[in-house]
Amino acid sequence: MLKWAIIFAIISLITGLLGFRGISGVAGTIAKFLFAVFLILFLLALLAVFGIFHIV
């Protein structure tokens, strides 16, 4: 998930530099969304490992 967020962020940067603002905005939004999902899943996994959050 983090890999795809980085890929979309790079696509957003490159298309922004080339002047494709529509594609850049969409790719940036997708990158933000994927990073947020990654961060939430990472924190849940971290809590599960330390036993604070028990997944049944």
Q: Over all CA atoms, what is the radius of gyration?
A: 15 Å
Percent of sequence in beta strands: under 5%
Helix content: over 70%
The structure class reads mainly alpha
Report the average pLDDT across residues. Answer: 90
CA(first)-CA(last) distance? 24 Å
Shape: rod-shaped
Low-confidence stretches: none
Q: Count of DSSP helices?
A: 2
Reported for the largest beta sheet, the result is:
none
Q: How many β-strand stretches?
A: 0
Sequence of secondary-structure elements: HH
Q: Compute the number of structural domains.
A: 1
Could you characterize the architecture of this molecule?
7% of the residues are buried. Helix 1 (2-18) runs antiparallel to helix 2 (21-49). The protein has one domain (2-49). The longest helix has 29 residues, at 21-49. The protein has 2 helices and no strands. The chain is rod-shaped and about 50 Å long. The model has no long low-confidence stretch (mean pLDDT 90). It has helices at 2-18, 21-49. With 56 residues, the protein is mostly helical. It is 82% helix and 0% strand.
